[in-house]
Amino acid sequence: MAAEPKKRISKVRGKTRRAHQHAVLPKLVNCAKCKAPKLPHTLCSECGHYGKIKISETKLDKKITKVLDKPAFKDSDKPAPSTDSGKPASKDSDKKPTSKSEPKGSQTEKKIDNKEEPDNN
């Protein structure tokens, strides 16, 4: 058998009992190195320092080292632009095919292409 209260507890009495049970904001301190707010006795998430000692590498540090370690390309060293098929792009690939065995749907394209545009001059 469970214990039962002898009398009903009113709303006010229950709320006054729970008045001290509220969320408390954490106390923040400034980082000694970058002055960003952080929790006390923890590693700074902005600069990676604990006190004045660098402990870990941050995402920003990794990006900076990646950019600095990246070799710079000269104009002659750049790879040739390629198409989706993996072959190097050429000026001839921009032209339309002139074969006689075009699909049936291309007839409408020919009609549109043959229309002359008026000169705006």
What does this structure look like?
Helices cover 22% and strands 7% of the residues. The protein is an alpha+beta fold and 121 residues long. The chain has a domain at 25-70. Strands 1-2 form a two-stranded antiparallel sheet. A two-stranded antiparallel ribbon has the order 3-4. The longest helix is centred in the middle third of the chain and has 11 residues, at 59-69.
Note the topology:
Blueprint (H helix, E strand, L loop, with lengths): L10 H7 L11 E2 L6 E2 L10 E2 L2 E2 L4 H11 L36 H9 L7
Antiparallel strand pairs: 1-2, 3-4
Give a concise summary.
This protein has 121 residues and is of the alpha+beta class.
Helical fraction: 10-25%
Give the beta-strand count.
Answer: 4
Radius of gyration: 36 Å
Output the helix-strand order.
HEEEEHH
Which runs of at least 5 residues are low in confidence (pLDDT < 50)?
none
Q: What about the largest sheet?
A: 2 strands, antiparallel
Q: Strand sequence of the main sheet, in spatial order?
A: 1-2
How confident is the prediction overall: mean pLDDT? Answer: 76
Classification by helices and strands: alpha+beta
Q: Report the sheet-strand fraction.
A: 5-15%
Number of helices: 3
Instruction: Determine the N-to-C terminus distance.
Output: 100 Å
The coarse silhouette is elongated
